Amino acid sequence: MKVGIIGLGLIGGSLALDLQALGHRVWGSSRRPETIHTALESGVIEAYFPIGSEIPQDTDLVIICTPIDGIIPTLAQIVAYLPPSTMVTDVGSVKSPIVTPGRALWHNFVGSHPMAGNNHSGIKWAQQNLFQGRPCAVIGKAGETLTDRIGELWRSVGMEVYFCEAEDHDRAVAWVSHLPVMVSAALNLACVQEQNIPVRILGEKLASSGFADTSRVGGGNPELGRMMAQSNRAALLYAIDRYQEVLAEIKEQIALEAWHELEALLQNAHHLRQSYCN
Amino acid sequence: MKVGIIGLGLIGGSLALDLQALGHRVWGSSRRPETIHTALESGVIEAYFPIGSEIPQDTDLVIICTPIDGIIPTLAQIVAYLPPSTMVTDVGSVKSPIVTPGRALWHNFVGSHPMAGNNHSGIKWAQQNLFQGRPCAVIGKAGETLTDRIGELWRSVGMEVYFCEAEDHDRAVAWVSHLPVMVSAALNLACVQEQNIPVRILGEKLASSGFADTSRVGGGNPELGRMMAQSNRAALLYAIDRYQEVLAEIKEQIALEAWHELEALLQNAHHLRQSYCN
Prior knowledge:
Two copies of one chain form a homodimer. By secondary structure, chain A is an alpha/beta fold. Chain A has eleven helices and nine strands. Chain A folds into two domains: 2-164, 3-Layer(aba) Sandwich (Rossmann fold), CATH 3.40.50; 169-276, 6-phosphogluconate dehydrogenase C-terminal like domain (6-phosphogluconate dehydrogenase C-terminal fold). Helices cover 53% and strands 13% of the residues of chain A. The longest helix of chain A is centred in the middle third of the chain and has 26 residues, at 166-191. The interface between A and B is large, with 99 and 99 residues.
């Protein structure tokens, strides 16, 4: 296939590397000249085309890998230049606000959400096999040609593909992706509420792998966190409400010195996690 | 040195391996016959002595590696058999409730808290270099002979040693160790509050590395989590209170659609994390 990737950060760049390794021809685009330079220089893409002008007419697929709020504007800029048979997908972490206008703009649009990434951002972190073994949501039903082809794309880079509706996706990721960001960000912000400075500094010294893991996603890209909340607000607020209730229950058992009940809650947390992380 | 290790789980077993690799002679003890069997068979210890009976009179150091609520009862059982010059330390994650009775029971007692571990427990996970590069609190002042010698012990297995008072230690770990456990446990418990079962199952499928990291410490050993809360109750309740305030502020910005303010909070979380995890 000939594939165009618009937005060459960690996700777009890594995807370009994997697709080239699979024998596809990959062109790319980015708003930032230095990203284009790096992508061409390092062979992440073989050619560059600016957004909003001619693109290769043999392009089979365009993957929009910009930040969430750039996806629909980018699609709007390219539709005039797309050959009618070209498929378009995206990698945004919220799907309802993207899939509806996306389909209205382009008949061959299918939304995707590859759940991959790490602490880094930018093309210099692009790497092969970033997607290997990770889950990917594809919006639509298995058995529809276009949806199946997009599913195949993600499977080809090693992902576990799940077909679902946009609304279900957004509610599900509110729990497992957006809620963790807010819960983890609050941990980073809470620790500096310690008023005794030597104790606060001692905490910094003693923070170990448990703190590092729990605080990681909340210490990530603030713009991405804000966009997640903005585009999935209702589902995220619902999840935070439920989370606050559960945390209040844990606190109550500690306050009441109800140690048996606390241990039962922690036992339940232990078991539940296994359904999510096997 | 000749070292006795009482409690041969992940921490005790791994410490025995490191100390033997450094040329020390290590005997061990455990309540569980199968642990003793495994420890002797795999060479984690070179000899076994039961708790509450004679121990080798050339033992320089005893390290109590039992769960928190076993530390003082264990010390009480061994003091009658300890040579006067033998040093004793422990690895409990809370120090005030241990150091005061510990010193009353034994003049050569110094509390320690090596901040190492992983998701596993039990001697079968014992491994060399578990402590390498991790922080360790030693209760007392640098410059006191006994405290310095215990500090040297932890440095010899690769740890960064911090000397501090028990009360400061307990407040600091309430923030960076015990609060993360409760915050993370609440995340595991909250996700099953989703009433739409297909959405809940989709969440399980889509949970990726961000969820796995944030939920990890809250999905750990429930007994250990309960004992942390029990022995550090006041400091932990204070930390949870502050955490709840911060999370409520994040939720309020999302509810108010105050996106600039939310991004500023997330930016702050991003910067603060760097002081804890550099």
